[in-house]
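Example S7 (structure tokens).
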């Protein structure tokens, strides 16, 4: 039986490599969770493990008892980019268009296979904020809720940048 379209061996190899990277990240994250000493440092360790296995950017956000969202950690391979992200969060605290805020509120994952300029314009509050968002160089993202015993504890946001990859539905799974 003929295939409806040709499948290149390189496609299978890329999928296999991505799957191996995902499993390696999950295994190391499980070890980190098993060694919990304090929550913030453990979440920071998991974010560090995600870069570069799964993403170029990783942020962990939690909901404080008063309901305010707090960024526990932002990770990137370049410390200058981490400073940029933290400066942006300080200058422009989370708002209604913030992806992590939406995920914390709904518990539903958020995924963009392509971060368009229109999407950035919708999220930005000012031209300065838009410039800072563009400077992050995010072509795609995934944000998922962290849950325990039916409660939403926080959100994990993953994004590529310099690696040039984009996320697919397989990555979201």
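Recovered sequence:
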């Amino acid at each position: 039986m003929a295939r409806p379209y040709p499948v290149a061996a390189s496609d299978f190899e890329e999928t296999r490599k991505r799957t191996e990277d995902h499993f390696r990240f999950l295994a190391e994250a499980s070890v980190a969770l098993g060694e919990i000493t304090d929550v913030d440092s453990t979440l920071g360790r998991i974010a560090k493990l995600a870069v570069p296995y799964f993403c170029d950017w990783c942020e962990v956000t939690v909901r404080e008892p008063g309901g305010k969202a707090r960024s526990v950690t932002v990770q990137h391979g370049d410390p200058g980019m981490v400073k940029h992200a933290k400066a942006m969060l300080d200058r422009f605290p989370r708002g209604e268009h913030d992806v992590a805020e939406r995920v914390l509120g709904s518990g539903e994952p958020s995924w963009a296979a392509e971060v368009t300029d229109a999407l950035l314009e919708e999220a930005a509050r000012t031209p300065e904020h838009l410039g800072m968002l563009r400077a992050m160089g995010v072509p795609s993202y995934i944000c998922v809720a962290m849950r325990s015993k039916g409660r939403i504890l926080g959100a994990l946001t993953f994004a590529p940048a310099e690696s040039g990859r984009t996320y697919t539905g397989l990555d979201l799974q």
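Notes on this example. The longest strand covers residues 151-159.
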